[in-house]
Amino acid sequence: MSGEDEKPRTTPETPGTGAGGASGPTGASNASSAGAVAFGPQEIRRPDVSGAVAGRAREGMFGIGGSGDTSGFGGLRLPAYAPAPSERPFGGWFDEVVDETTAALADDEGAGGAPFDVCVQQVTVDRGEMTWYVDREHLVRLARTLRDDPALRFEFCSGVSGVDYGDGVPQQLHVVTHLLSMTYRRRLRLEVALEVTDARCPSLVEVFPTADWHERETWDMFGIVFDGHPSLTRILMPDDWNGHPQRKSYPLGGIPVEYHDAEIPPPDQRRAYT
Amino acid sequence: MTTTDPYAASSRETTEGTVYTVTGGDWDEMIDQTAGDERIVINMGPQHPSTHGVLRLVLELSGETVTDARLVIGYLHTGIEKNCEYRTWTQGVTFVTRMDYLAPLFNETAYCLSTERLLGIEVPQRAETIRVLLMEINRIGSHLVALATGGMELGALTGMTNGFREREEVLHLLEFLTGLRMNHAFIRPGGVVQDLPTGHEDRIRAFVKVMRERLPGFHKLLTGNRIWRQRLEGVGYLPLDGCLALGVTGPILRSAGLAWDLRQVDPYLGYEHYDFEVPTDTAADSFARYLLRVEEMSESLKIIEQALDRLEPGPVMVEDPKIAWPARLSIGADGMGNSLEHVRKIMGQSMESLIHHFKLVTEGFKVPPGQAYVPIESPRGEMGAHLVSDGGTRPLRVHFRDPSFVNLQAAPAMSEGGMVSDVIAALASVDPVMGGCDR
Is the pLDDT of residue B66 over 60? Predict the structure, then answer.
């Protein structure tokens, strides 16, 4: 786990948790109790940038909320998780890549391009992997710079996929792109956070042709529109399918199963422990 | 007369033109009927035996030359990624193992390595070595199917029977080691589910000996075969820049001359301690890929022997009781199940053990929030597991970067401009597994 030395910040108002005492424990009280929890967020952190939030506050066990539950579990609240912005030095080659990209983007500024700080809203280093939360307006230019600059050479795109952080989370849809530099043997993750009401992201197909099917799958599964994609059609689901199955609001479906005289409900209707 | 022949091509008129249903043997007749129009769109699959599973090809032909190839996938989409979000981290293994069904142990390893990175744990050395051992045995099995089905699709039926015969050895061995021929769910977050059975070393060494004797048979049967070479050489050409642009990895990338094998360039599970070669070629065609697969099997045999030598006694699961599966499974009369000693303890002696067992099995363990992407070298290329956790006992997102999915994108580039028969050869050299492609 990362960022033990970082100062805890206060919990933001999390949408969708209801009114009346739902603002939850403060960051300080949570941090003091965090030591007793083996796993789970050590402290509440929220990046200063609005473009890179993730996670949703989780309440209670057994999915109980707002009831007269006296078991004690009803009051259990875990804070929303947000990836912590990392501070320099990032360690290893991470600083070098950020420096080189900053320089390469600055050289390019004649073309009306934005500097690194505008393109990349947040840099997070976690578990030995670096993630850049990218402003979608600058995604294609940033990707091309990463691919072409001789000191960066991220010439290989491993894949593009989506993540849905659940309803009620600001910027709940994320487009995640994994880049690989075969020359320098480095991996970098670009992440674009999108509002569900404005789920549009520029397509990377012109920079990395391999993104073609990946973006079709992300459209199919999450309903994220990739502007500039040559033929954004469904790829895994039938062409006339309604809805986007990997959205959290889309039910898993399934039927109850009878096993040894007991009826087992479908997985999405079973008791949840988180 | 067409009306008396039950196998004749039937036709119907649509807005797009005449649509014929051809079932085989009646092409001449159909060509006669369509005289004057050389441009035909044919639809191969999704059940055609030479499309490597439920893959559909839409080919636009001018004469017998393919001018346009489009691939349609999704016929084997099973929603595994979605299902994983409703199961615990441990249960996820039993789902992902069914993705690329020819390389189940690779799915499991990628998933578990990614989970372990999220947890921040390292598995014991013996578990690492067992994983390497199982994966390399599995790699041989997967490559044998690639050769066998590839041979079948080109009409080399002895290649098929030999390939599947050799693969039976692999499956028998895996059944002995893990309890199941496929879909093992043997590799779990934190290690492997149980230790290898007694007598494993003798069985594995005997397997290596048998394979050493039989692998040269492929060279005798196919490598020098005139027809085999004519069908494969220069077919399915994809040079290095095409591979990089289309994200192609695995034997296809190595056939274009780049020695890119994650086991060597980005070692995991201690692969840096093993002595093996990464065979490459520069021909970038189907024949080069065939040769590479045969050579890779020999390299895997080398790794298996070294892994056996490295196998030190020790635990096969992390010590942390909050993650490690509490039951010590054992083989009973009716197959593998809970060990009787463990059941006796939790039911008769220790209430706490029972509670702990129940909680861990039903609720699962919590994984700290964050995300991880761990790629490994599967028989088909880079297989990456991108897992996202929100701190709960179930994943927020499970995504697999499956090499079949990505490599299939290159099939049009390999086959357009060639003959219809070359499409089959090119596709066989991609070796796609639709279970992994569609997930």
Answer: yes
Could you give the number of structural domains in chain A? 2
Mean pLDDT over all residues of chain B?
86
Element (H, E) at B301: helix B286-310
> How far does the CA of residue A118 sit from the closest CA of chain B (Å)?
24
Tell me the per-residue pLDDT of B72-96, one tens digit each, with 9 for 90 and over: 999 889 999 999 998 889 999 999 9
Average pLDDT over residues B16-21: 73
Q: How far is residue B299 from each of residues A97, B186, B209, measured CA to CA in Å?
A: 35, 24, 14
- In this structure, what DSSP letter does residue A122 have? E
Hey, is B398 helix, strand or coil?
Answer: strand
With respect to residue A239, please indicate whether it lies within any of the assigned structural domains: no
More confident of the two residues A173 and B332: A173
Q: Which domain holds residue A42?
A: 1-85
Q: Considering only CA atoms, which of B186, B159, B191 is closest in space to residue B173?
A: B186
Which CATH number do you get for residue A178? 3.30.460.80
Give a yes or no: residue A267 inside a domain.
Answer: no
For residue B246, what pLDDT band results from cuts at 50, 70 and 90? Answer: very high
Mean pLDDT of B413-417: 90
pLDDT tens across A16-54, in order? 333 333 333 333 333 333 333 333 333 333 334 444 555
- Choose, out of B89, B99, B241, B244, the residue to mutate when testing the contact with A (most A CBs < 10 Å): B244
A209-227 residue pLDDT tens: 999 999 999 999 999 999 9
The answer to whether A252 contacts B82, with C-beta atoms less than 8 Å apart, is: yes
- Report the distance separating Cα B125 and Cα B320, nearest Å: 15
Q: Which residues of B touch A187 (CB under 8 A)?
A: 373, 375
Same-domain pairing of A199 and A218: yes
Neighbours of B78 (CB within 10 A): 14
Number of C-alpha atoms within 13 angstroms, CB side, residue B18?
14
State the average pLDDT over residues B184-198. 88
With an 8 Å Cβ cutoff, are B74 and A1 in contact?
Answer: no
The residue of chain A nearest to residue B370, with distances taken between CA atoms, is: A83
Residues 6+ apart with CB under 8 A from B210: B169
ipTM: 0.84
Quote the CA–CA distance of A193 and A176 in Å, as a whole number: 9
Residue recorded with tokens 């993540």: A163
CATH class in words for B80-319+374-438: mainly alpha
Nearest beta carbon to residue A158 from set B117, B369, B375: B375
Is there a contact between B245 and A1 if contact means CB atoms under 8 Å apart?
no
pLDDT of res. A16? 37
Rounded distance, CA B211 to CA B144, Å? 11
Cβ atoms of A46 and A84 closer than 8 Å: no
Query: Which residue pairs from A75-80 have beta carbons closer than 8 angstroms and sit at least 24 positions apart in sequence?
Result: A77/A24, A77/A25, A78/A40, A78/A41, A78/B391, A79/A11, A79/A24, A79/A25, A79/A27, A79/A30, A79/A41, A79/A44, A80/A11, A80/A12, A80/A14, A80/A44, A80/A46, A80/A53, A80/A55, A80/A56, A80/A169
Residues A139-173 have pLDDT tens digits of: 998 999 999 889 899 999 999 999 998 887 888 89
CB contact under 8 A, A157 and B391: no
Residues 6+ apart with CB under 8 A from A23: A11, A13
**Beta-sheet strands, E only, within B174-230:** 187-188, 191-192
Residues A59 and A139 in one domain: no
